[in-house]
Design a protein that fits this description.
Layout (H helix, E strand, L loop, with lengths): L1 H4 L3 H18 L5 H16 L3 H19 L4 H16 L3 H18 L5 H16 L3 H18 L5 H17 L2 H19 L4 H16 L3 H18 L5 H16 L3 H18 L5 H16 L3 H22 L8 H5 L5 H4 L8 H14 L2 H13 L5 H15 L6 H21 L10 H7 L4 E9 L19 E7 L5 E8 H16 L5 H12 L4 H4 L4 E5 L21 H4 L1 E4 L5 H5 L11 E6 L33 H14 L2 E5 L4 H6 L5 E5 L2 E3 L27 E4 L15 E3 H5 L8 E5 L6 E4 L3 E4 H8 L3 E5 L5 H16 L4 H13 L9 H4 L2 E5 L7
Parallel strand pairs: 1-4, 4-5, 6-7, 6-8, 8-12, 12-15
Antiparallel strand pairs: 1-2, 2-3, 9-10, 10-11, 13-14, 15-16
Helix pairs in contact: 2-3, 3-4, 4-5, 5-6, 5-7, 6-7, 7-8, 8-9, 9-10, 9-11, 10-11, 11-12, 12-13, 13-14, 13-15, 14-15, 15-16, 16-19, 20-32, 21-22, 24-25, 29-33, 33-34
Length: about 850
């Protein structure tokens, strides 16, 4: 143990092995002392990065202690903690977390909340949260561990130094450099005094302080610290240890920032070789090494080398995300993705420099965009299958329903969110492991029909590595849009569309003009078209079908209202339009549904006051009533146009009609995968409020600010004006509740309402609102509105759309024909884009299976 603590592994190992052999022979293979020797030997191998040797030893030790001492013994907690730490070092966070939680619970109960061993569990559990990007959670745990160690062991103890160092690390990750520096300095001073200047803990302190200086551009301060840390690790841990690779990598990064590329390359290469050998080809550190070396070659103009390494690094990252993210609560997954910064976005800056760079950029876009949505969708389908997970899925839906209530006090909401996250963890651990997939550009190209093209729009910040003296956060330019155009033959064309801000401003002005029924709204959309589509003319010449995957504010464009480039026609007249979240969907949409086709369901004209609403007129002329309302007052007006619409759609589809008091949210939740679902009612999306304007002390819509955007988006049903009248049904169906439903096999979901296509736009994922929720639930396509729509005009529009759909037209073609019919109408209001351009189809464009 003395040699181990000093890092003298070669001396420690034969002694540990002798001790184990004696105990196995004298006490037996199932004795607790034998387990202790197994744990020591496992820890020794773990410390050297020999994970494959350490794991079976650690597992054996845990099994012995659980059997001999019981599942609640402190020694069992030690084994749990050690095995969890081993998994954490390999990036197997989903395996580590439940072990850390068990160990912490045992120690808090058996030893008390202020015992040093409890602090160890807090410290290790905090590191796990740090690796998952949950920095605030990590900070709280680190603060607790530090307080315990300072009181129990004293301010100069090595364990106290470790806690101080780790708390500083959490501040560093959050960008709080001024908070981190004095803590790093304090931790280093303690380690040097207590353990000596050549201990591996001292090396870790030197490395972390140097990394902090490097991030701030203080290279002269950082270099000697990095060099000292590397020298210690090479001597104490050996030249092939993963920690040595970390020091090599960090020193290389410093030289990289100073433009010392010859020094940089050799260090990066050494780090990569160590990581591949010691950690394996599927470890996060290996991915980082690949990406760092690629970045170096890219800056030097060695693009072929750079792109090959970037592709390997990106592929590995996408696999690791798909391996670990599914076990996290949904609300924590984006934080985990954020721990993989820059690399996938940096690839977009390569798009303009030849075919290799364009291929890399499109590869990054096709695999990263909408990845969390896909994971959630695949898990939702698994959760709906028969099995033990059904009970958990049902309980989770019930908690989600409670969480969706706007009558909740903030403290109740927090409690329910905790329950929701715990249920999600339990459910996802029961589900079969998802098989990670990496999509190749050629696969998507092969799925494109002849005469078509896929346009992947990308909002990105250009990365400029030409000024190595600038810190990392100062190397990103202003956001721009670019288009990546893919043809069936695999040819890729990249087009720079310019700065994002002017384009976003044009889109916002055109949206405002459409909603206000301005006569010049078509010209406003034409300006958008000239900015977004006209640059694509050479790349799309001869194309008859466009598959469009938008990004950023481009998600809010009614593409049917844009003029076709180089033509007097609108885009929807000149070409067939197909909207997708990502071109990756083309591979999935090739698979036809095997789910048994059920009856269509039509819900219309809900009785918001829980009493029937009489229809004033069957006329389909324009009214002043919009299918939206004031979410703040939660008063919803009747929609007489939806009554006529519901009857017509039910007759056309042969579906079941629910209207008046029967148009309940609870009925929708109980319905399993209707063939077609049509909802004609009010819908809403509540934009987030700045923190200063949020209400944190009372229930109501403003209390939803800062919450999941799927809680701020929803559909309104019977009884919504008296949400407290029925504890089982408040009259609302939020997007978060929709995401918990099973709509696999549903061909089309139409939400004939205002703002049903709105949501928060998040980089890399798209629109967080009803559109996302419907896709997660498993429906193959959705038809949603981009703005507030008129009641009676929408009823006429929808009836015309379904007539064409029933006649056998594809979903996209039926929509285009209906838009053209209204655009050419003699009714001046119907011919306005406000009416015919509001609804947008996403997903499967083909005919509905009747």
């Amino acid at each position: 143990l003395l040699h181990h603590v000093q890092g003298l592994y070669a001396k420690a190992e034969p002694l540990f092995q002798r001790a184990l052999a004696i105990r196995e022979k004298a006490l037996g293979p199932e004795h607790p002392d034998t387990a202790q020797s197994l744990n020591y030997l496992a820890a020794l191998n773990h410390g050297q990065g020999l994970y494959a040797k350490a794991e079976p030893l650690s597992q054996r030790g845990l099994a012995i202690r659980e059997k001999a001492l019981g599942p609640e013994h402190p020694d069992t907690a030690q084994s749990l903690n050690d095995l969890a730490e081993l998994y954490g070092s390999q990036g197997l966070y989903a395996r580590a977390e439940p072990l850390y939680q068990r160990a912490l619970a045992i120690r808090e109960k058996a030893l008390g909340p202020t015992h040093p061993d409890t602090a160890k569990s807090l410290d290790r559990f905090a590191l796990l949260n740090l690796n998952l990007g949950l920095y605030v959670k990590a900070e709280v745990l680190y603060q607790r561990a530090l307080a315990i160690n300072e009181k129990a062991l004293g301010p100069q103890h090595p364990f106290t130094a470790a806690s101080v160092n780790n708390l500083a690390l959490s501040y560093y990750k959050m960008g709080f450099y001024a908070k981190a520096e004095p803590l790093y300095q304090r931790a280093l001073a303690i380690s040097e005094k207590a353990l000596g200047p050549y201990h591996f803990n001292t090396a870790a302190g030197l490395n972390n302080l140097a990394q902090l200086y490097k991030a701030q551009g203080f290279y002269a301060k950082a270099e000697p610290l990095f060099q000292r840390a590397l020298a210690i690790r090479e001597k104490v841990l050996g030249p092939e240890h993963p920690d040595t690779a970390q020091s090599l990598n960090n020193l290389a990064g410093l030289y990289d920032n100073q433009g010392l590329y010859v020094k940089t390359e050799s260090l990066y290469k050494r780090a990569l070789a160590i990581n591949e050998q010691a950690l394996g080809p599927e470890h996060r550190n290996t991915a980082n090494s690949l990406n760092n070396l690629a970045y170096l070659y890219n800056k030097q103009g060695f693009y072929s080398k750079a792109d090959n390494l970037s592709r390997r690094g990106l592929s590995l990252q996408f696999i690791l995300i798909q391996r670990e993210a599914p076990y996290l609560p949904v609300n924590e997954r984006q934080s985990f993705l954020n721990t993989y910064p820059y690399v996938y976005e940096r690839a977009f800056s390569s798009a303009q420099r030849g075919s290799s760079g364009a291929n890399l950029a499109l590869f990054s876009r096709l695999n990263r965009h909408g990845l969390l949505q896909e994971i959630e969708q695949r898990q939702a389908q698994l959760a709906s299958l028969p099995g033990p997970q059904q009970a958990l899925a049902t309980e989770l839906r019930a908690v989600t329903q409670q969480l969706a209530s706007m009558a909740l006090a903030p403290e109740q909401r927090q409690q329910l969110k905790g329950q929701q996250e715990e249920l999600e963890k339990q459910l996802y651990r029961l589900l079969p492991q998802l098989e990670p997939r990496v999509v190749e550009v050629q696969q998507v190209a092969a799925a494109l029909p002849a005469g078509s093209a896929l346009i992947e729009f990308q909002r990105y910040r250009p990365f400029d590595g030409s000024k190595p003296e600038n810190p990392d956060d100062q190397r990103w330019g202003q956001a721009r849009y670019q288009a990546l155009v893919l043809k069936p033959d695999g040819a890729i064309t990249t087009i720079d569309l310019g700065l994002a801000k002017p384009i976003d401003t044009l889109i916002q002005a055109a949206l405002a003009g459409s909603v206000r029924l301005l006569m010049e709204s078509l010209e406003l959309w034409a300006q958008v078209g000239r900015a977004v589509l006209n640059p694509l003319i050479p790349a799309t010449r001869g194309v008859n079908t466009l598959f469009i995957s938008p990004d950023g504010e481009l998600n809010r464009i009614p593409f049917a209202a844009l003029p076709a480039p180089g033509s007097s026609q609108l885009l929807s007249e000149a070409l067939q339009l197909r909207l997708l979240t990502t071109g990756r969907e083309l591979l999935d949409l090739q698979n036809t549904s095997t789910v048994k086709i059920s009856q269509a369901l039509v819900v219309a004209n809900p009785s918001f006051d829980r009493k029937p609403v009489s229809v004033q007129s069957n006329s389909l002329s324009i009214s002043n009533q919009q299918r939206s309302g004031d979410l703040g007052s939660r008063r919803w007006s009747p929609l007489p146009g939806t009554a006529t619409e519901g009857v017509a759609i039910a007759q056309l589809t042969g579906g079941r009609l629910l209207a008046g008091e029967q148009a309940q949210a609870a009925t929708i939740q109980q319905q399993q995968a209707p063939r077609l679902l049509h909802l004609a009612t009010h819908a809403y999306f509540q934009p987030d409020l700045p923190a200063a304007k949020r209400s944190n002390n009372k229930p109501g819509p403003t209390a939803l600010s800062g919450e999941n955007p799927l809680l701020r988006s929803g559909i309104v049903f019977a009884g919504a004006n008296q949400p407290d009248a029925d504890p089982a049904d408040d009259g609302y169906l939020t997007a978060l509740e929709v995401a918990r439903l099973n709509w696999k096999g549903t061909e089309l979901v139409v939400i004939s309402a205002c703002d049903s296509g709105k949501g928060d736009i998040q980089a890399g994922e798209g629109v967080y609102g009803l559109k996302r929720a419907i896709a997660v639930a498993g429906a193959r396509s959705s038809l949603l509105s981009l703005w507030a729509v008129d009641d009676l005009a929408t009823a006429a529009f929808m009836e015309s759309f379904y007539i064409k759909l029933k006649a056998g037209a594809g979903r996209a073609d039926a929509l285009a024909a209906t838009q053209k019919q209204f655009r050419q109408s003699s009714n001046a209001t119907w011919s306005h884009p406000y009416v015919w351009a509001a609804f947008q189809l996403s997903g499967d464009w083909g005919a509905v299976m009747w």
